[in-house]
Amino acid sequence: MTRLSHMLAGLHDVHVSGDDTVAIQSIVFDSRKVSAGSMFVALRGGYADGHDYLKVAQEAGAVAALVEPETPEEAVAGFKCVVRATNTRGVLAPLAAAFYGQPSQALTVIGITGTDGKTTSSFYLHQMLERAGLSTGLISTVAVRVPGQPDRSSARQTTPESLDVQRALREMVDAGALIAIIETTSHALETHRVDSCHFDIGVVTNITREHLDFHGSIENYRHAKGGLLRRVTQAQNAGKRGAVVLNADDPGCQSIASHADGAELLWFSVKNHSDAAIRAENIVASPDSNTFTLIVKNARFPVCLPLPGAWNVANALAAAGAAYLSGCDPSSISGSIENLSPVPGRMEKIDLGQPFTVVVDYAHTPESIRSVLEEARRITNGRVLVAFGSAGERDLEKRSLQGAIAAQFADYSIFTSEDPRFEDPEQIIAQIATGATEHGAVRGVDFDCVEDRRTAVNELIGHAKSGDLVILAGKGHERSMIYGAENRPWDEAQIAREALQQMGFGPVNREGTQA
Q: What is the domain class of 102-337 according to CATH?
């Protein structure tokens, strides 16, 4: 319980009417979660407006409301206190931080952003810190992890709303965590979800083309990513560490380095960049691992990363930089790299004894699809087969780019549905196919278009021969497919297993028949 007046202390640009000494038992933005003593925050979303549920919230026991200035008086009648603000989402963050006792002040907070590699780097860093004996919490696309508690599945948003972030940080503090890792998207930085999080360390994996439907231009997108660096420098005033880890091989990271003015910069590189204190040299890749010399400052360690893909080396270096800044010894970091576990839905192998390889991967940007297909081409003697789509109501221009990349690097592709939302799936698929045909690919020979994704998975796996590599890209760990406003259950890995079982593969019982 917290007095509303305490939560409002220090806030500007809000208008308060009614009794601000009212006791707040909880903060909610979902009217279905209101209970006696709640403060209801009306947020405008893509498909719903919290202002339409004020009466429902009040009748359910909410005693205070946060609304936009033009909200009619009759809509907030019955609340003991009403707070008006131009941007309710922006005010929610400091309210939540105050309600939960400013938990980020009691933690070393590490934010990880980038177009690709955020989740993998976050998971790798979590493993490194835990191996070093540093109790660590994690907020990521795949899971919310609080020490001593079972993992909670994350929402479709990579970074939850600020209320959920602050609640999770409070749980981490109460569980004895020393460090919190927050996977931080450009959307989160622009929509106030990580406001009132005082970051000690910021990590940027890379910046390529993504979310231009939201940001409008690559320049705006880079500026949004730079928001993490600006927050790190601002948090120095609150006694925070003030350090940033950047990818020296990535022009996008180079372009935003100035946003970290005043912070300590630590660069990493897989290309022996001279400015990088964290490097991987003499990289030797195999289908299942990468061996290389790890350099942390002036210390050198021969390591074997038990995971394939050049991107995994870069992600491990990003995590290593943050681990080093968090106080981990370089020898501990090198040992952690040799024991890293894969992330669910990231090059996840589906093996039922078939004579070809099937992997499920989250690659959904042009650059990540290119990286996965290039690596597949390099490590595979057989054909490279891929199925993917492109999300509806997202960056339109990347669709043809994805098709062109598939035409360039895959032997055969199926373009299919991937969260079409309110767009026509066939139109999205046609836009992907345009990029493939413009690159010389022929429909019916080099690629096909299959709207139903389950059918696409079945057909692609059925197309595979001995020695081939089948890549199911785009969905990864996600457990739903978005059609309109509906989330339909989806499990790509399980659907791949079912396809293989239909072909006769799978575990064998004692009688020698398929189990």
A: alpha beta
Which element (helix H / strand E) includes 464?
none
Distance CA 160, CA 144 (A): 10
2-98 and 102-337 share one fold: no
Q: In whole angstroms, give the CA distance from residue 63 to residue 34.
A: 10
Tens digit of pLDDT for each residue in 423-478? 999 999 999 999 999 999 999 999 999 999 999 999 999 999 999 999 999 998 88
Contact 435, 445 (CB under 8 A): no
Q: What is the pTM of this model?
A: 0.84
Q: How far apart are CA 509 and CA 72, in angstroms?
A: 68
The encoded tokens of residue 380 equal 């595979």
Query: Across-strand partners of 284?
Result: 291
Q: How far is CA 393 from CA 14, 75, 225, 424, in A?
A: 33, 32, 21, 10
Task: Convert the pLDDT of each residue in 107-125 to its tens digit.
Answer: 999 999 998 889 999 999 9
Whether 282 and 256 have beta carbons less than 8 Å apart is answered as no
Residue 397 CB coordination number (10 Å)? 12
Does the domain spanning 348-502 belong to CATH 3.90.190.20? yes
Q: Sketch the domain layout of the chain as residue ranges.
A: 2-98, 102-337, 348-502
The number of beta carbons lying within 10 Å of the beta carbon of residue 305 is 23
Q: Is the dihedral of CA 104, 318, 333, 240 positive or negative?
A: negative
| Edge-to-edge strands, sheet with 447-449 | 348-349, 357-361, 469-473, 384-388, 412-415, 447-449
CATH label, 2-98, candidates 3.40.1390.10, 1.10.3720.10, 3.40.640.10, 3.40.630.10: 3.40.1390.10
Q: What is the pLDDT of residues 415-427, one digit of tens each?
A: 999 999 999 999 9
Query: Residues with Cβ < 8 Å from 67, sequence gap 6 or more?
Result: 42, 51, 54, 75, 76, 82, 83, 84, 85, 88
